[in-house]
Amino acid sequence: MKRANKFVVRPQSEQDRELLHELLDASASLWNELTYERRQQYFDGESVWDTADYRKQYVGVLGSATAQQLIRKSKSAWKSFFSLKQDGERCSPPGYWGKEDDGRTLRTYVRNDQYTLKLGDCSRLEIPVGKELKEKYGLGYTERLRLEVAGDPEWNGKQGRLELYYDEPSDQFRAFQPVNVDNSRLDSPLADETAALDIGVNNIVACTTTTGEQYLYEGRGLFERFRETTREIARLQSKLREGRYSSNRIRRLYRRQTRRRDHAMDALARDLVERLYEEGVSTVYVGDLTNVLETHWSVRVNAKTHNFWSFRAFIDRLAYTAEEFGISVEVRTEAWTSQTCPNCGSTEDTTRHRDTLTCTCGFEGHADLTASEAFLRRHETDVPRPMARPVRFEWDDHHWSELPHSRESSKEARTNRSIHA
Ligand SMILES: [Zn+2]
Fold first, then answer.
1. Which has more confidence, 316 or 102?
2. Which of 168, 381, 383, 418 yields a CA-CA distance of 20 to 30 A from 129?
């Protein structure tokens, strides 16, 4: 059951007070800037999802997790606004924290695994701050801001996202902490599950976990649009006057193309990592790039497509996102895994054709998913054959959305079922 603790927090020095104030002020500033950009886009009739990188801008002050938390909160506010609107409800787009004249509302959100609340004789709360603030206020590299807790928080349990705000009338900093109280509360062991990824062209990521889940992020639509833009750029280039190599129009197309790709890849890394985190995954194996390039980059796939996916950047992004969730990314060779039959283990009797891997033992399955499964099996001894149907995702310009009935209707699912029967 859900309960909430409300309590007052007190900075232990004037300097800590300033630090906390600055942290809340920067959070409000991030929120307001992002909201401003999205409202402009919305009123101009444009998509609100392509925005500047506020995480990057605020990571130094807020730390990565808190900046991300605020960005996520904005996203969900806009999502619920759109879904209400779609349902024909009267509603207005998400607004600012505070009015221009009265100044900002000082508030922030701290992700549930980023803060520590210790209760006892001298209860205290520790919250993360960004590197720049640590330097400015003389905190150590791994140090967090420690605050005194006044009063006696009533509930004890699995802690939720903490909200911290400045209450002007009382001139106090207050905290609001949702708690999930469980009757049979035992501290769960650290997550110890593993996942392996197969990175490719048509399917950007195929993933198998030791919990038996499989995810497939399809890249065809995204790639098609990329190619259309590339063709359009080529067309414009061919019309350029002699001696000219580019134009504003071409540069704009390039920028938009890059932005779209980065947005999709960022969203993919985050969507995947959040799912893995929910599954209790602590380690993700990713194939080393030389091998990815050899196995997937046939003659048909030219340097332009290589450019498009920019694997190196994607893996960096994935590792960065994973780190936020305490998940480690390990790069390993995946030689032969794309040809290994998950049913009998043979590498010689299999045939890979387009998206399908078949084996003389009777196995037939999705080539990239089975490759990720074989890759996982190489690093883990105890890998169950995936029992759940794979979940498929497609990019719709804003999100990776689950394809309807992806768990039931794929050919892969039927094939697996017949093998298990
Ligand atoms: Zn086989």
1. 316
2. 168
